[in-house]
């Protein structure tokens, strides 16, 4: 059966990878204090997780020095960023408030199957490139009524 992502990581470890990835993109490296601040956790918790992520070959970590991602860690973080972006975009297309969509995407991204992400990606592309489709949905969402019937808009 296809996998949703890397099973050896839990939500917490994924959150750390995402935080490190964001800091590294911004600054070129991350520190224990930066990560702790980003995740609102204590520095000893960060150190413990960095040791775990280092054992899994996802980060390069040395005490009292900056933290960077390995190629594998960066690839996982990019995958998580992609899942988050797709979920947030999908929820925003549905009319969910940006802040709520971002929070929901953060929760869902840890459990969503890769096949679902692929289907959502295609759906978003379809909706964005199909003239009138999104507007018809928004009309229905706001009014509870179906737009005027047309040859391309019939319900069976």
Our Rg estimate from Cα atoms comes to 20 Å
Strand content: under 5%
Shape from CA axes? elongated
Mean pLDDT: 88
For this structure, what is the CATH homologous superfamily of the largest domain?
A: Iron dependent repressor, metal binding and dimerisation domain
Explain what this protein looks like in three dimensions.
By secondary structure, the protein is mainly alpha-helical. The chain has two domains: 11-69, Arc Repressor Mutant, subunit A (Orthogonal Bundle); 77-143, Iron dependent repressor, metal binding and dimerisation domain (Diphtheria Toxin Repressor, domain 2, Orthogonal Bundle). It is 63% helix and 4% strand. It has helices at residues 11-27, 32-39, 43-55, 71-93, 98-108, 114-129, 133-143; strands at residues 59-61, 67-69. Strand 1 (59-61) and strand 2 (67-69) form a beta hairpin. Helix 2 crosses helix 3 (43-55). The two termini are 34 Å apart. The model is unreliable at 151-156 (pLDDT under 50).
